[in-house]
Amino acid sequence: MSKKEQVRSMFNNIAGRYDFLNHFLSAGIDYMWRKKVIRILKKHNPGRILDVATGTADLAIEAAKLRPDEIVGVDIADRMLERGREKISKKRLKKTITLENGDSENLRFESNSFDAVTVAFGVRNFEDLDKGLSEMNRVLKPGGIAVILEFSNPKKFPVKQLYNFYFKNILPLAGRLISKHKSAYNYLPNSVGTFPDGDNFLEYMHAVNFKKTFARSLTFGIASIYTGEK
Hints:
This protein is an alpha/beta fold. The protein has one domain (about 5-230): Rossmann fold (3-Layer(aba) Sandwich), CATH 3.40.50.150. The protein is built from 8 helices and 7 strands; from the N terminus they run ααβαβαββαβαααββ. The chain has helices at about 5-25, 30-40, 60-65, 80-90, 130-140, 160-180, 185-195, 200-205; strands spanning about 50, 70-75, 95-100, 115-120, 140-150, 210-220, 225-230. The protein is globular.
């Protein structure tokens, strides 16, 4: 089974508990991180936003506060999208946000068609990181911005040691007990551990022609926001 199929299956299986686990296991810090993404987007006043690997649409819903003309969210996991549509309907955002099944590495949209592209906790799941980032760049309008939120690996003592203990011991156990999925929350620390974070990730962005790239470290290096313009 390819990484893409593994990711699709895993997220479909945990969709019902995904939001609760995200907020519970991060102690709610993920809300703050998303708000930081929106503050960066606000400076660019995007009219049309694409949210890649949108999941249950948390970031798309937060981005609706900017009052853009349109937000499109794409994801490969249908059950995650179903959960996202329920949330969008409850918040009466159906006129602003639409969700659809879509492959981040083969986006159906025309080139130069979005003012901003966002991803929250999704790029580490790309099967082909170069291709996924290249597609994000392709669909951006010239001067458009990509804002990417992703977990990182803390480098400093004692955060690094505490983080690794939590990620490798507590998080997988709690995730398994609550989600009833044996491997989903083992996948998370493994995927973060092998992800090219920090300056290494910026090199991937440069390689597909993003300009003015920048990395912002969040919460002692637990996560990072990466930005780049077309």
